[in-house]
Amino acid sequence: MKRWSWVAVGVLLVGVWAACSDNDHKNETRTASAPKTQPTATKPEPTPAPTSAKPWYDDYDPARFAPEVRRYAKQAGINAQLLMAILYNEDYKPHDPKFERQWAEIDSDPAFGIANMHKPAFDETKRGRDFAKRKWEELPDNPALAIEAAAWHLHDLAKRLPSKRADLYTKDELLALGYNAGGGNMRIFARGRKAGAQAQSYLDRLHGNWAKSAEALKS
User: Fold this and answer.
1) How far is CA 133 from CA 68, 125, 126, 145, 171, in A?
2) Which of 11, 120, 158, 214 has the highest CB neighbour number within 10 Å of its CB?
3) Cα separation of 65 and 172, whole Å?
């Protein structure tokens, strides 16, 4: 009995050892086969594209065209401050080229460009000039052309002033009135007729923009 008891104990120990070894082997296998956690790669942030410059007609200020105003006013022999003040007077509406063309579809007498010039005035002004082959339809996209045409239009208005004028308005005031109300009315005002409400409103705005125009030309 004792011998068989020792044999039984030995068999039992072998079984326990085998079970433990089997469990350890399974744990090793499980551990070995478990996937390793891979570090997450950080995707680099894309470099933002450079911001393009805004179109000139966004947040438009006539002062940005001071060099063109000085150049074309000198060529046409007119006061650069007058030309700049007129540009300020005419900045009351958006000068987005697309907007201007859309507006022209519903306006019976549209004006184009930053100087708001009507087609008959442009076509008459361009005769014999460096821009004679240019078209009125180009004005919304070409501020320099609009300024050049406005300068020479003022030059032509000055030539139409009578030699003898009443002292009610200065020459620059008369030219501004002519730009707004036409050469015929300008001559009437030059002889002493007081401007009507609409023309006077234009002149009042010119006076309000006068000092600002002088400052803009310094840029």
Assistant:
1) 20, 12, 8, 12, 30
2) 158
3) 20
